[in-house]
Description:
single chain, alpha+beta, Ku70, Chain: A, Domain 2, seven-stranded mixed barrel, 9 strands, 23% strand, disordered C terminus, Non-homologous end joining protein Ku, DNA recombination, double-stranded DNA binding, DNA repair
Amino acid sequence: MAAHRAQWKGFIKFGEVACGVALYTAASTSDRITFNTINKATGNRVNRIFIDSETEKPVPREEQTKGFEVENGQYIIIDPEEVAATIPESNKTLEIEAFIPCPDVDDIYFDKPYYLAPDKMGGDAFAALRDGMKKSNVVAIARTVLFRRVRSVLIRPHGKGLIATTLNYDYEVRSSAKAFEEMPKMKITGEMLDLAKHIIATKKGEFDPATFDDRYEAALAELVKAKIEGKALPKRKEIKVSKPNDLLAALRESAGMLKAADKPMRTAATANPGSTREKARRASSSKDRTAAAPHRKAS
Length: 299
């Protein structure tokens, strides 16, 4: 992990054992293509200015503060110092509260993953925790202050280290009952169920994230590359809509097509956004960038 900067450093404690640990970002969007907002007339970048909603005059940063809307258009002022005072003090300790079976945690509560690695000293204690969890087939629930908020964290073994996933609070997770309340009660049986099971069996495979391609990112990269090189812009392919409106007929057709094709589930990604972005970079290095060219976020 030496090439990455730790997002947080502290201690992990289980029982009376504690060791130094560091959190590293496990997933990042910094490689995505982003765009600036440009003035069409001048080609210059546009800056954001905050405007008073009533006077329509610009408000300097030093005159801006926080507010909570109590009624329509009525606010109570909250000073930044008051907000800072509500942030709980951090003792920099991931305090493990319980070890539980992993299936006990619904993944709808998963927020953001981090790699958890030993920080300098304490490697033996870290390894003892990791291997003990593996042997016991459990995960850990811990609590600490992360990024100015008290967070519950799910900790599980992963390779030579651990993964710490911050968890959503119960009030942040919306009820599934409300999402599905308008769904009619129905039970599929007979040929329709058999065909569905056949299609599922034919399409069984393994989870391999390397085969997933971000088609939107790849399309953006191709668009940027075409603009830089002055070529014709790529055209959107038309989507062919399935003709059968009858579900059973569509299932029969799908089952027949799969049987005739007999193709394996896993295939290599048809587009690689990373390599396409490299092509865009190489193209841009040979020509002057225009003011409308996208930039990369800082890591």
